[in-house]
Amino acid sequence: MPVLGTYGTLLMALHHQWDPKRFIATGTDTKASYTRWLRSQLEKPDVVVLAAEQDRMIVGYAYASLEGYDYMVLRGPAGVIHDLFVDPEKRNQGIGRMLLDTAIAELQGRGAALVVLSTAHRNEAAQRLFAAAGFRPTMVEMTLD
């Protein structure tokens, strides 16, 4: 779990780097807080947490969940992929695609007919991965500072 907490912190920091007005900054307690929060999610039956291992080391993770109707985003029941992160030194080896495919399979195996995710506007590499896996753009978030 501490490795996943580190990766969650790196994911947050990367988003903040892309757009500090939109995404929250990390702090000294972010890793511990994220680790605690992610651990609490493991107890929920509709949550999927995956860890990718290579050479006995955790090199990435995915966090997803089954969710019901969400009228705020005009969406029916769906599997939602919230986080997908691969250690920067291990990228471009197919690990992200493996995590994505496994998360999708887990969600569909639990009954999700629809799988959705969001990605930062500047995260072009992730957008290419998601498009290659069959995802299509459906929403654009816009921010007014």
Kindly list the characteristics that best describe this protein.
4-stranded mixed β-sheet, Aminopeptidase, 4 strands, single chain, 145 residues, globular, alpha+beta, 21% strand
- Summed up, the domain count is 1
Shape field:
globular
CATH top level assignment? Alpha Beta
Q: Find the CATH topology.
A: Aminopeptidase
Give the end-to-end Cα distance, rounded to a whole number of Å: 35 Å
Determine the mean pLDDT: 96
Low-confidence stretches: none
Q: How is the biggest beta sheet arranged?
A: 4 strands, mixed
H and E order: HHEEEHEH
The name of the CATH architecture is 3-Layer(aba) Sandwich
Q: What is the structural class?
A: alpha+beta
Strand content: 15-25%
Annotation field: number of helices:
4
Share in helix = 25-40%
Radius of gyration from the CA trace? 15 Å
What order do the strands of the largest sheet run in, or round the barrel if closed? 1-2-3-4
Number of strands: 4
Characterize the structure shown.
- By secondary structure, the protein is an alpha+beta fold.
- The protein has one domain (2-132): 3-Layer(aba) Sandwich (Aminopeptidase), CATH 3.40.630.
- The chain has 4 helices and 4 strands.
- It has helices at 2-18, 30-41, 95-109, 124-132; strands spanning 47-54, 57-67, 78-86, 115-117.
- It has a 4-stranded mixed β-sheet with strand order 1-2-3-4.
- A hairpin with a 2-residue loop joins β1 (47-54) and β2 (57-67).
- α1 (2-18) crosses α2.
- The mean pLDDT is 96.
Offer a concise description of the structure.
The chain is of the alpha+beta class and 145 residues long. The chain has helices at 2-18, 30-41, 95-109, 124-132, and strands at 47-54, 57-67, 78-86, 115-117. Strands 1-2-3-4 form a four-stranded mixed beta sheet.
